[in-house]
Write a structure and sequence with these properties.
168 residues; Glutaredoxin; five-stranded mixed beta sheet; two-stranded antiparallel ribbon; 9 strands
Length: 168
């Protein structure tokens, strides 16, 4: 499993973009994690699934509400990653109003979840292999803070916890 001090594994995520900008065309765009992390401070959190109850009611909204606080603390971007397809992530971004605040990135084939060792098998619940719920602070691609939730928990990966750790 990935740990503090490790570099986030290089993978390709997908992002659904509704407005052209910064080299992104409308529609699904590939996001090379290595290039996208270079020289930036990123608050990344992962959820088991878009549109799922805890993810939609608590996890993502907390980061939306604290977006300005993260920016004031020196975070360049906030990323939400989930093992969903890019179209689902795009629809969830629209529904949650994340434009200009949080990048919703699809890990459609669980490449990042597997590479970090942060997978969650929800096959018995009809969801298949997913990402565990966690948050991390990345500086130039290196993990500086990592908060991994226990099974079925939402206690340490929330926006307030990560923001307090960044400010400490």
């Amino acid at each position: 499993m990935i740990k503090v001090g490790d570099r986030l594994p290089a993978t390709t995520l997908m992002e659904f973009v509704e407005q052209e900008g910064e080299g992104c065309s409308i529609g699904p765009n590939k996001v090379d994690t290595e290039a996208a992390l270079a020289g930036k401070t990123i608050a990344l959190f992962a959820v088991p699934g878009a549109f799922t109850p805890t993810c939609s009611v608590n996890h993502l909204p907390g980061y939306i509400q604290r977006c300005a606080d993260f920016k004031a603390a020196g975070v360049d971007e906030i990323w939400c990653v989930s093992v969903n397809d890019v179209f689902v992530m795009g629809a969830w971004a629209r529904e949650q109003g994340t434009a200009g605040k949080i990048r919703l990135l699809a890990d459609g084939d669980a490449a990042l979840a597997r590479a970090t060792g942060l997978t969650l098998d929800l096959s018995g619940r009809g969801l298949g292999l997913r990402s565990n719920r966690y948050s991390m602070l990345l500086q130039d691609g290196v993990v500086k803070v990592l908060n991994v939730e226990g099974p079925g928990k939402f206690e340490v990966s929330d926006a307030d916890t990560l923001l307090a750790q960044i400010k400490a």
